[in-house]
User: Fold these one by one.
Assistant:
Number 1:
Amino acid sequence: MPSRSLAMPELACADCPIRHRAVCARCESDELEQLDAIKYYRRFEAGQTIAWAGDQMDFVASVVEGVASLTQTMEDGRRQMVGLLLPSDFLGRPNRESVAYDVTATTDVMLCCFRRVPFQTLISETPHISQRLLEMTLDELDAAREWMLLLGRKTAREKIASFLSIIARRDASLKNRPNANELVFDLPLTREAMADYLGLTLETVSRQMSALKRDGVIELKGKRHITVPDVSALMEETGDDADGGMFG
Amino acid sequence: MPSRSLAMPELACADCPIRHRAVCARCESDELEQLDAIKYYRRFEAGQTIAWAGDQMDFVASVVEGVASLTQTMEDGRRQMVGLLLPSDFLGRPNRESVAYDVTATTDVMLCCFRRVPFQTLISETPHISQRLLEMTLDELDAAREWMLLLGRKTAREKIASFLSIIARRDASLKNRPNANELVFDLPLTREAMADYLGLTLETVSRQMSALKRDGVIELKGKRHITVPDVSALMEETGDDADGGMFG
DNA sequence: GGTTGTATTTGATCGAAATCAAATCAGCCC
DNA sequence: GGGCTGATTTGATTTCGATCAAATACAACC
């Protein structure tokens, strides 16, 4: 169900993929023009911090390209990722002045930013947008809750398998799959970032990746390029209900 | 920041505590009358299931009294709580037909229910309410993310201490504390439910409760009645930043 | 090609929490 | 009071993932 939004009608919009999720598909063109008036693009390099927890953030944004993440850090350095933003995901909290978590560019990232104050004005005057934001926030909440099950109850192997299936589900290259049963994609995260996502150490991530490879569940070309020869075999490993899902 | 809503202005409304969070404080009285027209009360006993994951739910609701929880269960029985609803919390997802998680009455619960379809109509016609729901959902998302840090990175002892401080923060009896440094409240959950909340086993919960008692961080009267003689000592144990917080 | 620095893998060991098992406590009903 | 039931505590042992440590792969740069 976090994939719900993928099923929503998309606006054909060549210059700004943002609108696909950030903006209600029912918006009138003049509303879209107002959005255009307050938007600008911004690029961040891999590893760069986009905002620190507690900072003022004078924009909200949508991810155009690349991956950004939200993380929380404890004083002693323990770190947990609490949000992973892929292209078309929304960043920022309308009506909140400050950011609650560190926002980092996990890969090179291109953001489409909307200036915060005028964006909020637009929301308050455009119920469509506010309703769309509610939908998106509910989707995020669903994703967070699925993530909680993973963190609280899954084994290391199940965590890795779940992560791979989550990334695969969102990966663009999905669109042209030659073989319906096979799956090929690139990992946008280092082993360390995966560990932060999964509540593991990077050593455990590496070991479990090796184990899945040894058992033929995945194949690796380089460190980041993954082939899943049999999707259902991967799904078996996630611990989730085998039903539904993106892959038939 | 999950406590943000507590700081919001509350409507004086003797018969229905719901409004305090569920409905925008800026609503006009005729909008409140419309809400009254579609609401009804419903009681559930401890242990009773309010809805199963996947069920249609023909109402949304606000918790008036007692505690309800959202849980996810894996086929082999592993269980993770993903939502804990205390009085004034909102239950249900506007514009979603079905429930995503099992909803259970953790104690005896009184709900103030709003019939779903008319409630949705009201939302779409009343931007205030839709914006209030967005605020509430953002609060829930913040809470979920704090919870993710707990599940992914905290030790068993830190989890217990964090849980106690979360419950204490929300407990009604807080309102009349004789001694600002001391804290007295009742646990609304069994050890098993705590385990489901924290991603632990009930034995570990029990052991860590005993350890905190042994170390003088908490005192126990019966199994459920907790006294925290020194709030800052408890906060030390949570692993969280010592700053801010409800207790000064 | 060699060097440097980072990312990743692999190995050995340790420890926190899970698991398995039993005892104790607290209501509750008669 | 006494027995019954479910909740909780406590104990013994195991196990999975963390930690500590070292080797290997890889890309960028000279």
Note: The radius of gyration of chain B is 19 Å.
Number 2:
Amino acid sequence: MTDDDTTASRAGLKPGKRPTINDVARIAGVSKKTVSRVINQSPFVREETRVKVSAVIDDLGFTPDVQARGLAFRRSFLVGLIYDNPSPNYVVNMQQGVLDALRGSGLELVVHPCDRSNPALVSEIRAFVERQKLFGVILPPSVSEDEAVIDVLRELDCPYVRIASVSLDAPERMLVTNDHLGAAEAGRHLADLGHRRIGFISGPTLFRSSAVRGGGLRDALAERGVALDERLVVEGAYTFESGVEAAKSLLALDPRPTAIFTGNDEMALGVFKVARDMGLEIPRDLSVVGYDDLPMASRVWPNLTSVRLPIRDMGRMAAEKLLAPMRGLDPAKLDQPEVRPSLVVRDSATALKP
Amino acid sequence: MTDDDTTASRAGLKPGKRPTINDVARIAGVSKKTVSRVINQSPFVREETRVKVSAVIDDLGFTPDVQARGLAFRRSFLVGLIYDNPSPNYVVNMQQGVLDALRGSGLELVVHPCDRSNPALVSEIRAFVERQKLFGVILPPSVSEDEAVIDVLRELDCPYVRIASVSLDAPERMLVTNDHLGAAEAGRHLADLGHRRIGFISGPTLFRSSAVRGGGLRDALAERGVALDERLVVEGAYTFESGVEAAKSLLALDPRPTAIFTGNDEMALGVFKVARDMGLEIPRDLSVVGYDDLPMASRVWPNLTSVRLPIRDMGRMAAEKLLAPMRGLDPAKLDQPEVRPSLVVRDSATALKP
DNA sequence: CTGAAAGCGCTTACAG
DNA sequence: CTGAAAGCGCTTACAG
């Protein structure tokens, strides 16, 4: 088949130029408004017309110009991901999940890292959302918990979905992760291994999940008749270094805890380091359970027992909520399974020797 | 100051609606074309006029509509990052570097992971670039080495910058990382520690950097009078698992190598695992040097000696090349320092005991 | 150095 | 169910 056989050349389209809605209309013998209706899946098009126009669209390989549509709609086809989570693994998994949901929708993903300690945070987000007239925004923790940011999105009439460990908004704008459950599993695991003196290195209080995870641990232990000693609770910052500091203070106690649960894996590795420096062997002398199940959890020695959050799935589910109205679905009633963390048992926690 | 004092309300602008070029023109008492000239920094505007118009722009907080500009320019204000590197750390650092350069430019970053083994790779990239009419694209390895992808970008007249360990394109479209140098540093380090039987676990041949790093190692050893035994060279896949397999085969040799250099850190951790399983202690019984200097290099035990690539800087420099024409600069003559990897010496490689 | 007209490729609002 | 007109907010090409 030569170029001259294509519909494009038969219709006398300029080569090298993309076909427009006018070309489709002319060739299909309808008005451009009708083509527009077909593109936008309007029900007010006769089936026969729809088929005819669709055939021309496919034949020409026509795709509507996003800028022109955006200008007319006063809305772009870009989804923003605004995040302040410092873990590369978290960020990349989240991005991939969002992209999973966006695939085939014609929407693209624009990434926007931010820093909540930056005084210009809100004005920068405002400028970003307003300039790009974003189709919608996805907010993982902790920026999802920032009401000043949310206020701006509401004011700009920008759809959003928040991901958080507690319900902060209407169901159609929330994806709640059951962090209480994940921490509870970790707590039960340690209690069932016989541990009674259990240390907890929490995340920073800026993250709602820190308190939720602490609550999950506390409740699970209580369920087993074990009280969480508040003197064994230390606040970390979700970083390796903060894990080191917290572990030093916990392991300097006498008697020291026989097990430590950390709010994330980075801090668990800080515990590993301090234990090694003190000549303690994990898990023989100290059991450790982390949270996040980073790839390195299964690379370090001993392999780290950790709570896994399905981050990629979370990204996908949040994006699906954002797209639901476009697909004629009710985002509040989306049939999404609850996001449940699960404990991945490896070698860093073991039964307490009597 | 009340709302009624603002220029916007004095001029009778509708509240809640963003000011347009027409508002600026009317208030400044010029035509919209003149405002357009000011926005686009045309030299053909009298200084007095420029100042007057700029004042109104600032006063109104006017920012041009990106969709409308995009439609008229036939080009969006989006930079695409197309990548297939599987390392989350690499990806996030690269994104941050690109964003460093984009900050303040009004451009946004659209991420596009891809898979070179996907037969639809080229058509998907074409659709992405064509639909969004990208301002430009940045390509890290290995997709930067894919000529079919580059052909499409050329055909679509989409500016791009490639990042690679060898020069594959004109200087204004290339950021070359001196991987030969990085691997050579690793090689010299091991030779200087007295190692003679040195194993090399390379990356996949699909990555040009694999061969370049091997060459750097070989040349540095030769420089020290040490020959790289080709029987001690094994191809890995840049994954932990492939590092495990490669390490098994290398450490089963008799005599086994006294040191192993790996094409990346992931594979180095595979070596750690095998050594541990075999009862070999690093660095006493085996020295290991990695490449990438992932965050976990300083978390594992012993801390991993590794070659660091300034990935974030690379992202920034590549993006600066892409933006140079917009800033009236010549991208080929940009004053960018050469990208030089550097060896970060830690504890995983030590002097060979006689 | 400045401006009135036409156009970028779509959609909304209104008719029929 | 379908269409002609006007508009989204900018820029290009042409005058002056």
Note: The interface with chain A takes residues 18, 63, 65-68, 70-71, 76, 78, 88-89, 91-93, 95-96, 99, 106, 108-113, 127-128, 130-133, 240, 269, 272-273, 276, 295-296, 299-301 of chain B (CB under 8 Å).
Number 3:
Amino acid sequence: MVKSKNTEEKILDSAREIFMMKGFEGARMQEIADHAGINKALLHYYFRSKEKLFASIFNKILSQIGPAMLTFINEEIPLEVKIWKFVDSYLELMKKFPRMPLFIINEISINPERIIGHLNFSDFLDLRKLEKILHDEHGKGRIIAVDVKHFIVNIIGLTVFPLAAKIIIQRNLQIQNDEWHQFIEERKKVIPETIMGWLKNMD
Amino acid sequence: MVKSKNTEEKILDSAREIFMMKGFEGARMQEIADHAGINKALLHYYFRSKEKLFASIFNKILSQIGPAMLTFINEEIPLEVKIWKFVDSYLELMKKFPRMPLFIINEISINPERIIGHLNFSDFLDLRKLEKILHDEHGKGRIIAVDVKHFIVNIIGLTVFPLAAKIIIQRNLQIQNDEWHQFIEERKKVIPETIMGWLKNMD
DNA sequence: ATTTGATTTAACTAAACGGTCAAAATTAGA
DNA sequence: TCTAATTTTGACCGTTTAGTTAAATCAAAT
């Protein structure tokens, strides 16, 4: 006999929702149970502790991020298109779960021990390969020489920051809720332009 | 008769330390008291509640950020230098409190109501003025036409993200603790280069 | 229909937490 | 030195929290 798939899924969905909204410390098992429409005891019946429940949803989330951005690097397409594909797939993924980036960064920063082993994007982001691509492009005189670390931090920073700091940006740049989607769409153009402008800035 | 300045300062320092490390929900009044070397009752004697103590350090922190980055915009210096000055002053300020950016973004995102009124960088960042600068530079044919919103998000994203995601970046790009300082120094060059490359990318 | 195992519930526990209180200690002015 | 206000403390309180337990319900197989 299998534990009702429905109940387990309802729990995981609710846990993700509440944990993302309040963080590990701020989340309450009672609130997760309420949100799932079940008893608190049943919550502990499925996932023995808050820590284990958190680990379940956290692993699930992390395992979804990688593959969603994996594809672009191996395809035989121009560098600019690779960047666009990365930004596009990342921003599309985050439309469903806007709080995900900030949630992940924060929980890892506050409690790195809990995470060890889970998060290495080396699984889906081959540093050496990327380094080779940049090196080759530079060899062909197409781009300036850049450090792959700054290349990655630049792209991810430009992409992730506006999502993580959404509320602050909305408040200060006065972007209404209905304009936010448009702003994110614009970034799909702006980010590749920014990176390529940098790479091609050959004075 | 004045409340011992020493004790109040010790409390505020400890509170900032603990709150930044664990967040509002994760922080414990007992831990803050221990860190300050005082009794928990004394903590409540100085700051009546956890909320009020948190508000005190949060306001203090926010009021320090603005002015530290204020100066650059009004000076009669080239745009690139303005950007460099902003990045430099921001990164220097964050050397003392590396967890500050993530802390601020997270607490505001989780509980925006608590913050209302505190955070508007419109006090020190005049959007219209910046817009005029970009417009004039474009008029002189020096840069492409860009949206000031993306200009700001780009600069802040490139600057703040590596600080906020420090642990994740260190793990994945294999930057040791003693190399981190060097990496941040490098970003003072990379960020202005990235932005200016973008702005001057006139095909 | 009865049995067996999985699922769900209400009621409970122990510990941790923010906060209070009254008394003790300290400080500063008269 | 004495007094009065401020500062500091240990002991305490009520609530909230994650987690447990034992009984009840349900579903499927015999």
Note: Chain B has a mean pLDDT of 90.
